[in-house]
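Methods: example folding runs. The two proteins below were folded one after another, and each record is reproduced exactly as written to the output file, sequence line first and C-alpha cell line second.
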Amino acid sequence: MNCYTNGKIFIANISVVHKPEGRNQEKFFGTSNEYMLAYSKNKSISDFYNVILDESIKDKFDLFDRTGSYKRKNFIRLTDGKYALRESKPDFFYPIYVSNDLKVVSIEKFENSIAILPITDQGVERTWKTKPDTFMQYWKAGNIEIVKEGNKYVVYEKLRESQVIKTHWTKKEYHSYHYGTKPLEEILGEKLFDFPKSIETVKDTLKLCTKYDEKILDYFAGSGTTGHAVIKLNREDSGNRKYILVEMGTYFNTVTKPRIQKVIYSDNWKNGKPQDKAGISQMFKYQVLESYEDTLNNLQVPAESNAALLQFDEHAQEEYLLRYMLDVETRDHLFNIQMFRNPFNYQLKVAENNELVPTKVDLVETFNYLIGLYVERIQRVGDIKFVEGKTREGLKTLVIWRNLETTTHEEVLRIYRKLYDSVYSREFDQIYINGDHHFQNFRTGEDKFKVKLIEETFFKKMFNVEEL
C-alpha cells in the first residue's frame, strides 16, 4: 500500500534534528536529521492527547485542578475590535450570576446572587466569548473559573495545556548522542550498541499517543529505548503503561534485557553503577521463541525414517522432512512424549555458536499460551503445580502438572481435594492433567470430557495448521 498517495492511514513525515552539528564525514551536506513516519489505523477517530512538548510553553500553564494544568484567559472578548462590542453582538452580552462563595454559577438570577457583565475597567460594554448556553457547558466541564480581584469579579476561561505539534522537531534533547548513546554507555558501563535513539524523542512521541494505562508495542526493540522511555514516563506521571518489545538481534542478552533491568532499579547510572536506588515497582517477562532450526533439531524421527533420509542430498532431505515426513510418517512422533513425565525439567536442544546446547523450557507457561489461559492463581505443593484461570472463551480452567517420577495418583488426589473442596471444584469447566490419572471423568458435551490430557491437547495445539 502506498500510504503517501491514498492518505488513508498516513499522517505525517516528521523531521527530527538528532545531530544539529551535522555529520562531518559527508562530502556534501552534513546530515543533521532523520525521519519519523506517523500512521493511524483510522484517522477519522484518532487524535493526539493535549500535551506540551516544549518546556518554555509548558511553564505558562502554571495552575492546576483535577483535570490537569491550565492558564487563565479573560472570558471577555478583548480583541476583534468593533465586532466584540455589545452593539455588534447583543446575544453575547448577558449577566453571569454567582454566589458569594463563587461555588454556584448560573445564567438565571437566583437569591443573593451577584451579576457579572462583560464591561471593561474603562466602562466599555463588550461581549463574552460564547452565548449563554455554551458558557454553562464550559462551566459544567470545569473550564471556567471566577475570581474576586479587589472589588470586582473576573470570569476566566481555563486554557488547558496544548501545543501545535509541528513536523520539524528541534529540541536539544533529541540529540542522539547526548540523550541516546551516552546515557546507554553509562547504564551498561561500556559501548555495546551503535546509534541508539534519543530517549527523549521516544518519550515525547509516547506523550502524544498514550495515557496512563495504555500498551506500547515495538517490533524493532533494538537497544530497548522504547521500554526505557515507557518506564521513565511512568515514573514522571505515575502511569501504568505497559510495553511489548520484540527483538531477534544477538545483542538482546547484552544490551536490551540488561538495560530494562537496570532502569527499573534506578534511573541514574554512571559507568555501569547505579547512583541511587530510586526504582520503580515492576515485573517484566521475556520469552525466547523456538526457531525454525531448533524445531527441526528437536523432532523425534523414527529410525527407519532416518535411514530413508540418508538417500537424499541436503536440500532434498529438508524438502522430504517438511513435505512428507512431518505430515505422514512422524505424525505421532513429533516430540518426545517422555518430556511430560517431569515437566519442570524439560530441556530443548538450542543452537548456539554452531553447537546444540540443552536449554530449559517452561512447559507450564507454554501450555498456558497454547490454550489461551488468563492465569489467575498458581499454587505449588511439592512436585505438583495447580494453575487456575479462564480461557479466551470464558471457560474456568484448572491445569494440574506433576512430576510423574516423584508423585503418586493418591497424593495428587489428596492434595487436589484439600485445595479444592467438592463445591469449589465443580466450578471448573475443564481440568487438564499430565499423565495417567485417577480423576473421575464425565461428558460435558458431544465428544467432550471435563478432564483432559495435557499431552494430547499440547500436541494438537502445537501442530494445528488449521488455525494459522
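Second run, written to the same file directly after the first:
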Amino acid sequence: MLTLYFHITHMDGSVLETEGQEYPDLYVATAEAMESLQELVATALLSRRQRIPLGIAICSEEGTILREVSVNAAVPETAQSHQASVFHSARYMRQLGKQCGRRE
C-alpha cells in the first residue's frame, strides 16, 4: 500500500493535504483524484465560487509529485465551456466598448 497526498491546485496557490490516504497503487489513486476533482469543480461552479480548482497533484510521503490530474482531463466538457464563456464574455465586452465610443 502507498500513502499518497492529494494537493489541490488553484490559480493563486495550492491546498496541501496533511493526512495521506492509503492506495494499492498509483492507478487507483489517479482514478480517485479524477473523481475528487470532478466533485470539487462541480461544487465550486454550483456555488459560483471564484476559486475553481485547476488540478490535483498526487504526492508521495516525501513530497515528490508522482502524477498530476488537470481539470481539462477530469472535466473536459466543463473546462471547454468555461473557456468558451470567458472568450465570448471578453469579445462581448470589446464590442460593447466600441459601441460606447471607446477605443481598445
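Comment on the second run: The helical segments are 26-46, 71-74, 76-99.
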